[in-house]
Amino acid sequence: MARAADYSCQKETLSLSLFRTAVRSELRFVVIRSNSRSEVLRSLKLQRITFIVGALLVFDSAQAGPPFVTDDPEPPPPGGWEINVPFILERTPGKTEMDAPLFDLNYGLPNVQLKLEIPIAVVHDDGNGTRAGAGDLLIGVKWRFLNNEQSKVQIGVYPQLLLPTGDRARGLGEGRSAFVFPVVAQKNWEKWTVYGNVGFWWQTARETRNYIYAGAVLEREINERLTLGAELFGNSQKERGSRADVAFNIGGSLKLNEHINLLFAGGRDIVGDTSAMCYVGLQILTK
Question: For helices 37-59 and 2-31, what crossing angle results, to 10°?
Fold first, then answer.
């Protein structure tokens, strides 16, 4: 695992070196004189290729995951924070549930991500008022055990534990702990990214049942600031007497500056009771 991290650092150093070399070469070309037109053209072509390769390597650092439900295997850079602060809304018959906001804190280690989610839960029942307060905490560790730079394929696991810190009597928590174990994978090519997960939830609350879930996301980089994507995901029955769900989301991210992205997504169930779901928030990256 240490080798993968070292290779990543070497890649970034090489990228910057190529980038700087290309820039210096472009400047030198202005003042160098040559008697051979073909030699000048070859030199210019080589400099431009070097410049483009360096730029591609520098900017090949997009991260997947939020604002979509589906998880990806890519952790933040070692020593870096990824902090997502979204407002999330889900509407089902007679009820609206929100995280207003959710504090999603992620810290990067070599091929590892440490996660803590702290929700401020808001629940509105039609005809029965609104309750708000701290929700259930979620902690997790993502481990990317495969990161093939040549094929641009990543695979990992992402176990997470739900802690029943919310008030179940007020509808703000599950009342019992739960555990999820997903396998996550991702493939990048050109301006496209596809990633997905398959996992299993173990639930211990009374009306709940264990269930399988899966999801996949296809994203495309529109330009240096905007990435758009579509998601399809679903699960087996979560509660006794309920039915399976299949849903979609459409969303993306907009780069506001070097360290802040605007995340947005919206969708609904194709099969199931959720008539609307929405995710809008900020993502803060320290590296």
Answer: 150
Q: What is the CATH number of the domain that holds 188?
A: 2.40.160.40
Q: pLDDT of 230-255, one tens digit each? A: 999 999 999 888 889 999 999 999 99
Q: Are residues 86 and 54 located together in one domain of the fold?
A: no
Q: Does 104 share its domain with 196?
A: yes
pLDDT in tens, 191-230: 999 999 999 999 998 889 999 999 999 999 999 999 999 9
Closest C-alpha to 165, from 178, 156, 155? 178
> Coil, strand or helix: which one is 163?
strand
16 vs 98, more confident: 98
Quick check: is 70 in a domain? no
Q: Confirm whether pTM is higher than 0.85.
A: no
Domain that holds residue 171: 81-285
Strand partners, 285: 82
